[in-house]
Structure formats: C-alpha cells, structure tokens
Specification:
The chain is an alpha/beta fold. It contains 15 helices and 15 strands.
Length: 393
C-alpha cells in the first residue's frame, strides 16, 4: 500500500462498519467498570475467575516490587530469569500435569515461537479454519506448508494427513475457540497425531483456569496426556495477570528454550508479575467455587439467551456468542446496550466471517445474578426493536 492510499482505505473501513475504537477504562477490572466517563456492567473481559483485581495478587506483586524492582533487565537467557520465574514454570507444569513449562511474555508470542521451532520448510502444519490469529501467523512464519482443515472436522483432517505421508506433520488447534466458545475434539485429534506421527499443538487460552480438575485446563477436561502434545496456556485471562506458558515433554520444552525466537530475543516479564501469577495459581487450585459459580452463571445466561430472536451459540464455557448478522445491526445493538449501562462488544469481520457479526458475551465468577438478569432484560427489550430480517440472521 502506498502512503497516499491510507486515507481512502481508512474511509472504506468506516463505511463498512469495520473501524475499531478503543474505550478508556478507569479503575480496576471487574464486572462494574467506568468506561469513557460512564459506569457500566461489563460483559467483555476474559477475567473469567475475577482475579484481575484480587488483593492477594496485588499484595504479591507489591512484595516482589520491593525485592526485585520493576523491570527484568534482559531476556531470560541473559539475566532476566529470576527465582520467581523458575518457581512459576515449575508450578505451571505441575498444574497441567506435564513434565516442564516455559514462561512467555504473551500467548501471541508463545504461538509465534512454538510453531516455527517445531516445523519448517518441507514440513506440514494442519490448522483448524477457526484458529486464533496467533496460530495462523505462527504457521505462516514457520515456512512449512500450511493446510487448513474445516472447523473441527476430524474425518477430513485424517484424509489430509494421509495425503501428506512421509513428511513431518503438526496439527495446531485452539482448545476453546474464542469467538464461538466451542471445544476442539482433542481426544480425536490426539488419536490422529498418534496414528500419523505428528505433533499436536493446543492453544488453551480460554480453557486454562476454567476447565478441568483444579482449573488445569482442556487436557485435564479430556483426561489427555501424551509426549506429542505441546500445550499453550495464557495467564492474562482466567489467571488475571499477564503472559503465557508452553508446557510439554522435557525435551520439547528444552528445544523451545533453545530455538523459540520469541522467548530468546525478548526481555523477560517483570518479576512482580511472576509473583502475582504464583498467587493466582494458589487461588485457581484452591478455588473450585469460582469455577462452580462461573458454570452456574453460564447456565443462567444460556437459558435466557435461548429465548431471544437472534442465534445463540450455546457453549459450556463463559464465552456466549449471540449472532446478530450484519455489522451495522451488531453495532447498533451494542450502542443501545451501552446506553442502558451495559458493555458488550460487537465482534465483526475479519475476526469472524462476513454476515456473522455478533455480540460476544463473556462472564466472570465475579458477576452477580442480577447483572446477568439485567443484561437479559435489556436484550429482550431491544429484541422488539429489531427488523424481522435481523432476527433470522
């Protein structure tokens, strides 16, 4: 794109209803937030367990701040790897029941590092059509051949893997798909990887802390274990802080330590964040009531959404999408809810497919029942304002 083309391209985004606007949030994350100067009930955060503003995390960070200061100073390979980082990696590996873990700055950087480290030119990466952008970009960076298979279609994937026999193969998938909230068929995918001698890279950004015994995530939910699995979990969602980790067999994680460029060539995260995450893990492992509360609220919301005229993609997770259809209709409904003091984001292409713009409603264990009921009441009110075409989108 030439510099002179930018103004016209920006106008095209505006006219298509695809321009993004950031909102200014004041105060801590929680169900009740102040946005652009107005108080509202938020159903847009991935803080699924309500830990982002928990005092135990803040106190752990404060103590580490006094001991370690603010910055890590350098990469983990130089002088940025502290006792707190090492303890965090050990705790994470034990929680997800894998031999070893490596701490990354973000989930995006983890996926950008893992896929090029495990696959390269001459190899094949099989990617679910609805994978997160970080998996898509990591696959592209690897320079391996990328084969996209239909969403959750194990039969087609099996056929595609047979077509690429004789080459090193890797299957990459979200565990919980972030826009639809549905689960990948991980047992079937692992069986395929065992049959075809392939890696299975699992991005559990939205399952870690929420699913499985003790919040151990999607592998625990499905009761899976294999040396072929390379597991990525993020730490800025259910864990309430920031960062990510990759866990797997000892040799696989050692290889990532030696070859994942997004770990090797970036400054380590501040030690105080590692301390806050250790406190978060204490709460995740001991706090089954938070997951039970989240499941209760999810059921309450799902039941209410099923009676609305828009298409609800029911999910066992706190991600509850409501398909509106056209971009303009989704944006209009989002604005109407904001006027009611409720903040739910409208998700539009290219994040989702054209014609499937939606409200992506997310829940937290910190929400109250009356918060959920208020959202449902407002949606019922605005459902009566929608034209018939929008109701069948």
């Amino acid at each position: 794109m030439r510099p002179a083309e930018l103004p016209a391209r920006l106008r095209e985004l505006e006219q298509a209803g695809l321009a993004r606007r950031r909102r200014r949030v004041e105060g801590p994350q929680g169900p009740l937030v102040r946005v652009d100067g107005a108080d509202c009930v938020a159903f847009c955060s991935n803080d699924y367990l309500g830990l982002a503003s928990h005092p135990a995390l803040a106190e752990a960070a404060r103590r580490a701040l006094a001991e370690y200061g603010v910055g890590a100073g350098a990469s983990g390979h130089i002088c940025g790897h502290t006792r707190l980082h090492e303890e965090l990696e050990q705790r994470l590996a034990r929680l997800v029941r894998l031999p070893r873990a490596l701490h990354f700055s973000t989930g995006y950087m983890a996926n950008l590092g893992v896929l090029p480290a495990l696959a390269g030119a001459g190899d094949v990466i099989f990617s679910d059509r609805l994978n997160h952008a970080s998996l898509i970009d990591g696959a592209r960076l690897s320079r391996a051949d990328v084969v996209v298979y239909p969403h959750r279609d194990v039969e087609v994937l099996d056929h595609l893997m047979q077509q690429h026999a004789g080459r090193a193969r890797l299957v990459a998938t979200d565990a919980v798909f972030s826009m639809d909230g549905d689960l990948a068929p991980l047992p079937d995918l692992l069986a395929l990887c065992e049959r075809h001698d392939a890696w299975l890279v699992v991005d559990d950004a939205h399952g870690f802390g929420v699913l499985g015994e003790s919040g151990a995530g999607s592998l625990a939910h499905w009761r899976l274990s294999s040396e072929r699995i390379v597991y990525m979990g993020t730490l800025g969602k259910a864990a309430g802080v920031f960062g990510a980790f990759v866990a797997g067999g000892a040799d696989a994680v050692e290889w990532l330590l030696q070859r994942a460029r997004t770990y090797m060539f970036t400054t380590a995260t501040p030690p105080m964040l590692a301390a806050a995450l250790l406190a978060a893990l204490d709460l995740i492992e001991a706090g089954s009531w938070r997951r039970e509360r989240l499941a209760f609220l999810t059921g309450r919301l799902s039941e209410g959404l099923s009676g609305l005229p828009w298409r609800h993609l029911a999910s066992p997770t706190p991600i509850q999408p409501l398909i509106i259809g056209e971009n303009s209709a989704a944006m209009s409904l989002m604005r109407s809810l904001r006027e009611d003091g409720i903040w739910v984001p409208a998700i539009r292409p290219p994040t989702v497919a054209p014609g499937t713009a939606r409200l992506r409603i997310t829940l937290s264990a910190a929400h109250r029942e009356q918060d959920v009921d208020r959202l449902l009441d407002c949606l019922r009110l605005h459902a009566g304002d929608e034209p018939a075409a929008a109701r069948t989108a």
